[in-house]
């Protein structure tokens, strides 16, 4: 199968995001092989695979001997290669602990894209005081990713409280009419608070890409961070 | 048409709710005629028609000369006959001013069922402080009806803050994927806050019935209000 | 995972309902751990976990040695800690024997919330005489929970016969166009009998919360039951 | 347009049902012209047009001078030609007065097909005693057509009470999640009472065809009715 | 579980159809137990269980020692008790061999209800000549059940060719947009041929009930068959 | 508005199909203006506008004085400029007379694209003999376009009978669950006859483009027709 | 109605976005009145009303005599008050001329929020060269808003070509299965190009809010623009 | 089961396509048996089975000893018998490597139908240059099959660039709102590029049938290929 894959190593330069292996529905050996080929074709940064089945997660370390391999079973990601020095920061809010797999996929992708991600979890609207308590931490961040399942109300509440570009990610958590996350997705699109931009259900990866583009721009403009990065690189 | 309608005048005794004319899709003259027949068959309380078209609203006063007629163009209701003395109270929250038609249908029905309704409007989640400011008014009420369109998040937030039986009514306010209120309805059913019971889209009437059954029970048990009612009735 | 959960021990005081563990999609050890932490943080009442997988149900008794542990395999619930003395009563109707899992989740939750639940099962509309035979038992109850799958007609029929606050719970029983309970849910929302309030599919837990809020209010107002509770407590 | 229509005058012999003009979406003059052509091509029985717009209903009498023309504004049908002597009988139940347009389309079609139709209206499940009161009239009928909108529960209840072939017709009466009759249709298909056969929403015409095929068969077998028909024809 | 089941042994007398065990989602031992209880409570005819899982099918013969047990693995039915002498006949058409499970459930139910069922299989519209070849066999039958998956076109074609009451059953055969049979169901409801009455997806049982009611009526009226039945019974 | 439209006059050369004005939702004057600009930018063939509202249809002749203007009120098209000499042929089947608007849009587009279209109308599956009678006319045609609404069964039947590339177009004719043509579209996609390719609902234009590409290829290869075209052109 | 509206004048400070009047479904006089009240309560910037019906658009200028009033009939917006000096820039791409209403709502909102918007229209994927020709203009922009109807493919193509935060807005342009924009919305959420964030159908307003938050941040960080603004202000 | 299958060996002559075994949902032994019977009844070409489960794929070679058996595990097809000499050619484009199963089913079917298929894989719109690089290969082909999942944008882009009959096949690749391929299917039907004809999700088989009918026609007309075929046959 892999012999007819057309790698797109130029994608990182063109869009700021390297090609990534979406492992769902692929044979484990194909996924591992594709990671290896990406690693070779585009050595400027680590290679990332998302939605990895158990067989990929457990075999990755042995497959890539001599490489820095980071496996996250909760977020189902494999990263091969050293993470870049982060510039810029994104805050990731998760409504409940069941939304953590999506949050982890998002945080790992941010790290691969060279952006620092900070997680604030279990701040769903059923206990509003938890959210109100962490609001100050959102002041001035470049971008906030807000993950929620069930009725997907968290982005609406956050977007009405702070002046931050906000990306909402419906998580597939729910049951009955809300099973699979479709209700959360539709509710986020219908938000009464303006400016909520929505990703596909469970798409922590895509949210990270959107957020990283915003955060890197802000960091670049700022300059301070970039300077620090240069300094750190010197001592690295 | 009306000649083959089978009136159900016993419904008030059996279920606590009189038969009501649902005017949507009926010819105005049929609606008016049915109100008159209900008034005659069940004189113990006022007759109510909901979802009245303009032609019913504007002709009702002339049609029922000599009767006490209350017309609400916003809620699209017509009441013929004197309202009963209210016992018990229900609070009605509306997320936005566009939800007022549903709120009005609910308030009028509460009045017809002999329950006092109090409206708190424009407390949607996009400006949370407005809701937090009115929370104390919800303490100890017998039942709260919460109306919202778009993403329908308000009931989730309220249900996480107070210990009150809560009936959520999705309103048909919204557009795009949320047009017609279907997203609000699904979101309310998927609420992460426990205990949110949901009515059909725009069903302020049904919410009032459910809430009135709760409030009357509470008022009856309480006794004080009942006693007052007896006294007032004496002087009435 | 659990280290970043923000427990909400104040929820019981604020909303009358303690925080509860929704075990679906959680690792069994996380669920057991969360129950333990809830038990510790909120010792005023028992801790409840719903939608428990087999691994939680079978391990709960051993995990909580020295505690009163109640496991219900049909309703898939685990309760740790002594149940409170019940005050107030709710009647739970189930259309068929396939609806019993939802009914059991509801009954267990009622017990945890300190409300007596009475089950009347297998009274679906295909054999109406079964329902008519039990109707007298519904007279004067504080609230009725009505569970049905397939076409979800039972709540409509009940609501046309008695003067009781009625909560309808669609069960996921059905096949073909009615698979998963979506048709039952939509039918209940579309009920021609006024006052039917609807929960999410299979949400026996949420129905119990709504019903308990109504029943406790009625019992409190009544006083008698409370008095009895005090007496019993003396001898307890 | 009509010049390229291929009339199917043999349909009556082949299927027991003549070709019929479905007027929705056709220009009034085309509908009237098609009726005339059908009348000519298939003179063995009256010509029927269903779903007629106002312009057809009001012009039909003048267009077919010298013919027996029956116009039903409620059922939106036009019949040109004398109705056949009825043989066999079908009972049509309508849940509410808003379902009468569907019932009328059904009754007119039965008449055109030579079957006697009897209407029992306003027997919805919100007032069950009304239905129970008319049940004896269903004993022994050849076929029952049951029309309901909203949650579409009536066929389930009826099918659990009598031994009669039952055709359910969802009517487009409803709002919110039940708008247009889709919920009624799905609920009828999901009926917990066995043997409920369902037609498309509002398809009173199709229900009449199905019922007439059953009723004519029964009448034919019976013989008595046929004999009477011959007698009556003698004195006619 | 079974202790709270309310058997409805009167159902056979009331509706012409005995209570039946729907085994899907029930524990095998409960299904077998319920069959036994039905057998006892209603000994006038055999007991039927539909949608039986493998465990019921394989254990039925041993469980009901001394009884006549008929197990159909394709139709997933178990019948306990002797089948009644058939009166009247129904023709069952299946579009493809994949539709046979539904056809078998229908045929077994017909047998249990005392009606002879004749199967004509693999006559789908992709090879029309196969259908045209068997058309003569449909002449004069009391009722035809037509089963099809995918686009569900077969009932439309049959209904345009013969004068027979026709019950269409969508089968869950299909994939892509037609997965699960929903498209077949909707297409059958939308049939351009009048008189197609539709059952839920895969509901061969319900189709048999509707068809049997029609066929028994026809057979009863006819008399000949009944007389033969009496004769046969004498020699039986 | 039109000032920022970017005309694509190269489209005819690139894809074989000129840019076309989709008039739905455009102001009449904008549509007429765009036709004029297309006419000027791409004078090699006539300019076409589809889905024209009444105001465009009635004003087109006066707007384009001195041009050959063809207006089709049924198909809602306007063609400005002389039609090319046709090469190749496509047969268009329409199930009923209500499908003629879609058929006309298809036929006009074929003419604009230089392909001869032949219409065979009113051959729906409810009267199969009509279809069987015209089958011989389909032998050897380059492509068949088959239009049907309601249950959309016609393409399945045709595709099982002839060896012709077949394009199915669902028409928006239908009501109830089949309203708008969605059921016809899904049924056509689910066809049990292989090789049915489907267009969007009502997209007679797109079907003509697909069919014309096939027919022109066949005609070109054939050569005979092309030669005739040259000859005719000489005498033209 | 307006007397119970709770204005939220603090919203601009809290979220960077002033409260805005959504005029759809409101009476024209209420909309005008609400604009006036917003203008008074929050004089720091212009007041905006979106989705204005004709009656608001035509009466706005007369209603707000002495104010700077900007009415956009295509985008259906009314702005009362002087627009702020723009800082930062957002590029708005529209696939077709039918998407211009959504683009205009977006551009007006950007202007109200103090951000410069640049429109690139009619660059849909059916003529890819048009898009490729304008790509260089996207280099280095702070944020791109991409509007498309029908199959909504444009954002996927753009996101694979440039390194820019991208907000996709489905427009309600389409017909058949794509009517109303639901397919475009779902396709955008399903984009194979990472980082596409999606707004509700037709929500040009929300896209502008999201984009403005990004662009203002970038402009602020940059500083140059801010300085220029101060300078310009001096000479203004 | 197979004993009642009615083979249609005449189908190849009638429609140009032999009967084919759709193995999904059939028992492996039935599939193998049906292949054998088809092979016998219609020996003019190879027998094909699609959607074969593992058990058929692995047992086919042993079952058909002495026959030429071709098994494709990726496309899940089994072919028994020698492939015909190909005439005409079809190009198959696949957006990503996950779409290869559909592409393989298509390619195998083309081979069985005697048409040469050429695969161009991994040319999705996220990296447009890959597609632009292979465009010249599409010039002059008889038909192109374009397969894509997720948002299904590839056919729109291709159809705007080349003058080739284009068949789009949605693949079931996607997640969240795009799970199962329904969004890709709807997007392809809604294409803004004219002439995109769509197959059911994953229906590589049907696409091959449609494409083969086009390609064979073109090849036949052309003659050259046919001549070559004759020559090759001489030397074969």
Arithmetic mean of pLDDT of chain A:
91
* Subunit organisation of the chains: homooctamer
Fraction of residues in H or I helices of chain A: 25-40%
Q: Say what the CATH topology of the largest domain in chain A is.
A: Rossmann fold
Terminal CA distance of chain A reads: 40 Å
CATH class of the largest domain in chain A: Alpha Beta
Class derived from helix and strand content of chain A = alpha/beta
Number of strands of chain A: 9
Count of discrete domains of chain A: 2
Query: What is the number of helical segments of chain A per DSSP (H or I, 4+ residues)?
Result: 9
* Radius of gyration of chain A, taken over Cα atoms and rounded to an integer in Å: 18 Å
- Unreliable sequence segments of chain A: 224-236
- Helix/strand order of chain A, N-terminal first: HEHEHEEEHEHEHEHEHH
Largest pleated sheet of chain A:
5 strands, parallel
What's this entry about, in short?
In chain A, 40% of the residues lie in helices and 17% in strands. The first copy, chain A, has 236 residues and is an alpha/beta fold. Chain A has two domains: 11-80; 89-221, Rossmann fold, CATH 3.40.50.1970.
């Amino acid at each position: 199968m892999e012999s007819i894959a057309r790698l797109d190593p130029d994608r990182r330069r063109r869009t700021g995001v390297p090609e990534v292996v979406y492992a769902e529905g692929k044979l484990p050996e194909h996924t591992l092989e594709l990671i290896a080929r990406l690693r070779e074709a585009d050595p400027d940064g680590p290679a990332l695979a998302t939605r990895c089945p158990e067989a990929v997660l457990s075999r990755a370390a042995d497959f890539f001997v001599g490489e820095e391999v980071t496996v996250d079973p909760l977020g189902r990601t494999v990263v091969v290669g050293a993470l870049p020095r982060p510039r810029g920061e994104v805050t990731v809010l998760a409504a409940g602990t069941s939304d953590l797999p999506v949050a982890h996929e998002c945080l790992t992708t941010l790290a691969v894209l060279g952006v620092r991600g900070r997680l604030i979890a279990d701040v769903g609207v059923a206990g509003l005081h938890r959210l109100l308590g962490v609001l100050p931490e959102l002041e001035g961040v470049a971008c906030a990713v807000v993950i929620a399942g069930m009725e997907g109300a968290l982005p609406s509440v956050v977007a009405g409280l702070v002046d931050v570009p906000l990306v909402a990610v419906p998580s597939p958590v729910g049951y009955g009419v809300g099973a699979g996350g479709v209700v959360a997705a539709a509710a986020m699109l219908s938000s009464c608070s303006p400016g909520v931009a929505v990703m596909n259900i469970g798409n922590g990866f895509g949210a990270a890409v959107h957020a990283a583009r915003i955060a890197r721009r802000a960091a670049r403009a700022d300059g301070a961070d970039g300077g620090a990065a240069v300094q750190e690189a010197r001592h690295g």
